[in-house]
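This section describes the prediction task in plain terms. A model, or a person checking by hand, is given the sequence of a single protein chain and must write out its three-dimensional structure as a string of tokens. No templates, partner chains or ligands are provided. The sample shown here is typical of the held-out split.
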Amino acid sequence: MSKNSDKTNVMRILDQKKISYVSHSYVDTGAVSGTEVAAALGEDPDTVFKTLVTVGKSKANYVFIVPVKKELDLKKAARSVGEKSIEMIKSKELLPLTGYVHGGCSPIGMKKQFVTTIDQSAESLERIIFSGGKIGYQVEMSLEDLRKVIRVQAADITEDDNEE
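The expected answer:
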């Protein structure tokens, strides 16, 4: 099997746009949490992000990219995109809407470009790691390079840590 067949659509899009990235893969052991993915990759969970797809009160869809060990704050997220409220889409709606399955959803290469917001913590990181578009595949790149591929805004969208 040639190395090229291991590429996901996300990686092909990045190659096509000549954007540098590092690909990571881990053995797919079924549905794993983002923190388990970070551990499998031997990476700091603060640099590994998950892609969440939501629907607003207006019925518009939004994509949020948050660190794997944090939770999306639905109120902050709604405010960041000018919605009264938002909720997570149902798992069965993910594939027809984005072209991705749960656990392999990437902000790059969705069927349609949705308004995308990344947690502001990404702005202080040199690189971020997120799904490569297939379970078991991750891509690592700078936020600056991600912005060359998709429109993404940064905002405070995660629940506050109650650790004082």
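For orientation: The longest strand covers residues 49-56.
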